[in-house]
Amino acid sequence: MLRTTAFAALIASPFPLALAPAALAHATLDVTEAAAGAYPRIAARLPHGCGGAPTDTVEVSLPPALAGARPMPKPGWTLTVEPTADGGKLLRWAGGALEDGHYEEFIFRGKLDAAAGAELPVPIRQRCGGAEVFWVEVAAPGQTPHDLQHPAPILRVATGAGHAGHGVQMAQALHGAHGGHGAGHSAQGATAGSATQGPITVSEAYARANPTPNGASAAYMTIETTGEEDRLIAAASPAAARVELHTHLLDDQGVARMREVEAIPLAPGAPAELRPGGLHVMLMGLAAPLEPGGEIAITLSFERAGDVTLTAPVRAVGAAMGHGAGHGAGHGTDHSGHAAPGN
Fold first, then answer.
1. What is the DSSP letter of 239?
2. What is the pLDDT of residue 4?
């Protein structure tokens, strides 16, 4: 068994530092870089078992910067989640049978709460009956990861906003940081206000104009899926410093007060309608005023389908969009401190 002091010096792990003999291929992450504040979908990839034996348990130790991540259940495996002493999270898939000659991914997704430039080890542990492989080693100063037999996968926090997952990266490339004045098309090559990627189709998207510097706006759209049930769990845009999913709820006085929601569910045959006075994407801290006729890039992050990026045209207050666009203004709407337009 191998031991490494480099790993112990750089990260507190719930794993004992025992390692099986070196294998031919390493455990890896399919995403190796994401921006601070992004919601990357990450798959821990295992290319083999333990010395010929099938893998029956997989443990992924998330650092505190990913403590809010959620794992995806896997058929035939029992999933458990435990907090760790360093403020992180331990994800465990157990009871399965991944044959030595097969390949598998164990998926999780969550907000990356770390400073740009950070390098975050994500240790992975395999159990195969009585055998085990610990991918936990971290290179010491002056050492390269290639010198390690069982390196822990590393997630790097990008130094620029253009790496917030594949979708935001494409959005930044299309629009830079010019808010409502970008030109071009959505990442999928669709017309402005629509996009299709995999089972997800977004249509009738637009953002409300707001001439106020550093103000707020809202984006509306219809979202459909032809695949399995899914959830919209986050959104991002280079046009705003902060983007959240919101809805309106009536209080005891009949005033519609805006509240953040954790996710917006999707099901085949049941489109999610984001409309004034209801669900919407809230854009706060605008990088520049949103003028009618402009466009902004928006990336929608789905729990299962991943990221979808589209270009949303900017429309003036009162410019109708489909059904329901004229509702919301002047009807007792309270935005709880956000400088957003009424609808």
1. T
2. 33
